[in-house]
Amino acid sequence: MKLLVTGTKGQVSRCLQDRAAVRDDVELIAVGRPELDLLKPEGIGRIVEAHAPDVVVSAAAYTDVDGAEDEADIAFAVNETGAGAVAAAAKAIDAPVIHLSTDYVFSGDLDRPYTEDDEPDPQTVYGASKLAGEKAVAAANPRHVILRTAWVYSPYGKNFRNTMLKLAETRDEIAVVDDQIGNPTSAYEIADAILDISGRLLGSGDPSCYGVFHLASPDSMSWADFAEKIMDASRAAGGPFATIRRILSVKYQTKAARPKDSRLSVQKLRGDSALTL
Prior knowledge:
Layout: E1 2-6, H1 11-21, E2 27-31, H2 44-51, E3 55-58, H3 67-70, H4 72-92, E4 97-102, H5 125-140, E5 144-149, E6 152-153, H6 160-168, E7 173-177, E8 181-182, E9 185-186, H7 187-203, E10 211-214, E11 221-222, H8 223-236, E12 243-247, H9 267-271
Helix pairs in contact: 1-7, 2-4, 4-5, 6-8
């Protein structure tokens, strides 16, 4: 099975590279800038065609939630136009595309886990650009699997886990928001699911394999809960740790408002579809 992944340094791409490196049945090619640049969609088709993958994984994205408020044009160019070009390039070689999206397509006001049938209502430029990307991918390639993920963490790059561990090196106490709830999800869990889904897509002609799915940890918690789990694990491993002080989000203002409750229901992917994991 040959996979082409957009992006080389992102969390999911790095974890996919790790997983593929120990599997004899997977050939994974990660391509990123300058070879593949989502801001230059006109060159994407040629690159995808040259590598001739069985499945295209659209993982590269503009992910700076606060930065997107000031760079809306770039966020939409990458997350909508670029993503659509990747999906179209996959269709041109008759390959399915697996595209990563986000819980930020929802407002966070529902007070229960969101299902795939709930109407998106993004409250940020980032969320709106990712929702636009979902629509562009679906329009460009009917053989699409759109995976909405949440609160992704890994040993790689900039994420909440790594930020907490870095702060714990110099602080005894860290203030963390306790009134925003979501599903902290390991990028390795996402990578494993992508490899599993890719194999299923190649082995099945069932059209119900395609569509929008929520891929997240079934466990939900607040940012403060997540921070305490990170500190407990770090302390047990002999690493840095700090006390977590729980605060309300009004005490930690960000340029882009975060959803208060962006929990995702994972029932469809866990048991109610042809892609059951």
